Write the structure tokens for this entry.
Amino acid sequence: MILRTLLAGLLAVTLAACGGDDAVATDAPPADDVSTAGTLVDAPAIAAGTYAIDASHSRAEFRVRHLGISTVSGTFSDLSGTVTVGDGLGSLAATAVIDASTISTENDDRDDHLRSADFFDVAQYPEITFTSTGVRPGDGGTFTLLGDLTMHGVTRPIELETEYVGAATSPQGVEKVAFTAEAEINRADWGLTWNAPLEAGGVVVSDEVTLRLDIEADRQAEAAAPDA
């Protein structure tokens, strides 16, 4: 689904350790440590605050192999959420909500099938959600956004390879920021297991799905302090 990306894929990092009970401990941090604010080296500056996703200028796309030879892509038209930044990109936190019923692959019959109990079962699971849990720094404006993806009633951790594209101010004076994020996931991990075998071998729909998010978000005005 969202979320090449919701909306990665989105792999848990495993740290292997060797040695017996008397192995000497070290102070080195584990490989899956989540970064804190200010740990992104050479990251571009970003104004602190809360940014609301501008759905009219954002896109949640997925791509999946069909018959093993072609690619079907789809989008979700209803996307909302926030990006909150404190002291730099290392402090970034994000949430996103997608209305699963707004799926579109530009084919009505296929879209109805995707909404059915064979796939998303939107009557029972109307939303796809993402909540970030941390940031792993990369180079410049790139980083890995760790989080929990809930889809089809299942919540699993994912990793989004994310890039901060930049900031701009609209003609209306709205301060905006933009990000792209990509991931590879296995849809079966979220219970999306429908398929059909082919006579020559293989299946109709690949389990591997590429997710891509293009996000533009508007900086929100700070809430006024209460009267003393």
About this structure: The two ends are 48 Å apart (CA to CA). The CA atoms of residues 104 and 180 lie 20 Å apart.
